[in-house]
Design a protein that fits this description.
Blueprint lengths: L1 H25 L6 H18 L5 H31 L1
Helix pairs in contact: 1-3, 2-3
Length: 87
């Protein structure tokens, strides 16, 4: 049962990142992919170093945001290479 929940959550997590990427691209709000790539690590690293006794729920939320941004980074990279390939 745990494996099914984990697999479902993982797929949902990736789909949310894909939907967010395409929404931001459609609205012309998608920032540079390297800004997103740096933000992935900084969002997770800075609060963890500054507040080592942070509650687990907040840490998991921060890691979740960081993970979604990682999906956005890779999807925006894929869109960019696809766009360059068609030109």
């Amino acid at each position: 049962m745990t494996k099914i929940v984990f697999m479902t959550a993982s797929v949902l997590f990736i789909v949310i990142g894909l939907i967010l990427t395409h929404y931001l691209k459609k609205k012309h709000l998608l920032p540079n992919r390297w800004v997103i790539g740096c933000a992935v690590f900084l969002i997770a690293l800075i609060p963890t170093l500054l507040f080592p006794t942070m509650p687990d729920g907040i840490k998991q939320g921060i890691y979740g945001v960081s993970g979604i941004l990682a999906v956005v980074f890779f999807e925006s990279s894929r869109l960019l290479t696809e766009q360059n390939r068609t030109k």
